[in-house]
Design a protein that fits this description.
Number of strands: 3
CATH architecture of one domain: Orthogonal Bundle
Order of helices and strands: EEEHHHHHHHHHHHH
Strand content: under 5%
Oligomer: single chain
CATH topology of one domain: Cytochrome p450-Terp, domain 2
Length: 267
């Protein structure tokens, strides 16, 4: 146990009477006005200054995940703000707490699925598309046999193709960062109809997870980046709720149309 007079090591931020230091830099002299927020977020996690190519891909992910309309996370934030307008932090938190296996959490789930699949090759990563297809086919077949969903497949709105997916793939390719996770994700898109008997789109949350994994970010933190992106979107929803409120109408629509059903009634 560290004693009260011991030291508490950190590679992030420290301050004294006159200065604030962050990542070994003087905050005011070296960072403010010179480093973008996306670059700083990536730097804080990796503890190394990212390249311009890495920043472009990372910020494309943040933009892709910032908002997707009246999702459950946005509705939760707006309704919480309606109930407690004095608590902006509560409204933001309520939206972020909904980041799970159906919304936002897919980013981490997909990155983990891809990383676990790549780990089965014992360091001998595939090279040709055909090799990635074979690996993808094995992974999808195994998931199907275990009655598990393949994260990153399908979307409740974009049934014929998520428009974010090809754009992020293109940006990663342009920046030389289309790595094994993205290539495996693309392979899943090619082979899954053989196993599932239908064709599903590769969704934006999944491709974001693959792109983040190819940046070398820890799989356990990928959901955090999705939440970082969505925080901006939720703040936008709350600003809009102040200008053009809809939460009360949502509440009243549900409340006034609630119909009692006996618990003994047949389902």
């Amino acid at each position: 146990m560290t004693t009260p007079h011991g030291s508490y090591p950190t590679s992030l931020g420290t301050s004294d009477t006159d200065t604030i230091r962050l990542l070994g830099q003087d905050l005011t002299e070296d960072l403010m006005g010179k480093v973008g927020f996306g670059e700083l977020a990536l730097w804080l996690v990796t503890l190394r200054r990212p390249t311009p190519s890495e920043v472009r891909v990372f910020e494309a992910v943040l933009v892709a995940l910032a908002d997707h309309g009246f999702t459950p996370t946005a509705i939760a934030a707006r309704l919480t703000y309606l109930s407690a307008p004095e608590s902006i932090q509560g409204a933001l938190a309520s939206g972020l707490l909904g980041g799970g296996s159906r919304f936002l959490g897919v980013t981490e789930d997909c990155g983990r699925f891809l990383a676990d699949t790549l780990a089965t090759v014992d360091g001998q990563l595939p090279d040709a598309d055909a090799d990635f297809d074979a690996l993808a086919l094995t992974a999808v077949t195994k998931a199907r046999a275990e009655r598990r969903l393949v994260p990153g497949l399908g979307h409740p709105v974009h049934k014929k193709g998520d428009p974010r997916t090809p754009v992020l793939l293109r940006i990663a390719e342009e920046e030389g960062l289309r790595g094994p996770h993205l290539r495996l994700f693309e392979a899943i898109g090619r082979v899954h109809p053989q196993v599932l008997g239908r064709s599903l789109p590769l969704n934006g949350a999944g491709v974001c997870g693959a792109a983040l994994a190819d940046l070398g970010l820890p799989v356990d933190l990928l959901r955090g980046f999705a939440l970082l992106a969505r925080t901006a979107g939720l703040l936008g929803h709350l600003a809009e709720e102040r200008r053009q409120p809809v939460a009360y109408d949502v509440y009243m629509s549900v409340d006034r149309n609630a119909a009692y059903v006996s618990p003994d009634a047949p389902a």
